[in-house]
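Sequence only, no structure available. Ideas?
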Amino acid sequence: MPKPYIVKDKFTIKAKNEGFRARSVYKLFELDQRFNIFKRGMKVLDLGAAPGSWLQLISKSIGPTGFVLGLDLQEIKPIEKNVMTKVCDITNLSQVEKYLNEVNIANPDVIVSDLAPFTTGVKYTDQQRSLELNQVVFEIAKKSLKRGILVMKMFEGPDMPWFIKQLKNYFSLVQTTTVKATRDRSKEMYIICKKV
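Reply:
I predicted one. Tokens follow.
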């Protein structure tokens, strides 16, 4: 029997107690601990950034000399001085490029994406939509990430090996992993890509 969906699990409670906007912050925290993603002074692009918990963590990790731009379909409440957010459909590549140029990070050091499609409950449909979103993220990375790290979330599915192969043709290193803060019933994975 599947485990019941628990809204207020330990990560949700921890996030509230520590002042983070969402439990998903602990996914990025674990990834950063394992893959050393962020350094002081970095320029970062966060795709699908609402409600802003990843932005909060990135802001602290890169420090006041760093800068992070968060893009999402929803408006995001202000965070820190080194964080700027814009309402943006990331499938509009020219708009993404425009915002990157506006804040002088045309070539970020890191791109992160916790994007997920609006789920239908139909497994194959949700996997396909996740793949389509990540193909857009990959296109953004190819245009702007000259060297650095790309982190993206993807739902496991039959097309994942094909997509990983495309990534390996472009990046020096590609790894897939799961994180402890992922809900038990979720089929999400994270893909870490490095270009040197």
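Residues 123-144 form the longest helix (22 residues).
Hope that gets you unstuck.
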